[in-house]
Design brief:
- The protein is of the alpha+beta class.
- It has one domain.
- Helix content is 15%, strand content 31%.
- It is built from 1 helix and 5 strands, in the order E-E-E-E-E-H.
- It has one helix at 57-68, and strands at residues 2-3, 15-17, 31-35, 40-45, 48-56.
- The protein has a 5-stranded antiparallel β-sheet with strand order 1-5-4-3-2.
- Strand 4 (40-45) and strand 5 (48-56) form a beta hairpin.
- The longest helix is centred in the last third of the chain and has 12 residues, at 57-68.
- The protein is globular, with a radius of gyration of 14 Å.
- Residues 29-68 form the DUF397 domain.
- It comes from Streptomyces silvensis.
- This is DUF397 domain-containing protein.
- Pfam families: DUF397 (PF04149).
- Residues 1-28 are annotated as: Disordered.
């Protein structure tokens, strides 16, 4: 993974992850994801768009499958109480 703080938009269409029942203009900050040319996937926080983390599509897909399978639920169990 790498970071690029020189160009926060990178000419990409950013998708904002909004919690269920929330609005994209709510309090945030939100996680934003963009898919670049080829294999690149970019992530950033809406309140710090200059810090961009880059990963590959293969790693992103593995992460999404893990979330869907509940592999990370233990990280949020206490936060949901």
């Amino acid at each position: 993974m790498s970071q690029d703080s020189d160009n926060p938009d990178l000419g990409l269409d950013w998708i904002r992850a909004v919690p269920e029942g929330g609005t994209e203009h709510g309090p945030g900050p939100w996680i934003e994801v963009a898919f670049g040319d080829g294999d690149a996937v970019y992530l950033r926080e809406s309140d710090d768009p200059g810090t961009v983390v880059t990963t590959t599509r293969q790693k992103w897909d593995a992460f999404v499958r893990g979330v869907q399978a509940g592999e990370f639920d233990h990280f949020v169990e206490d936060a949901c109480r």
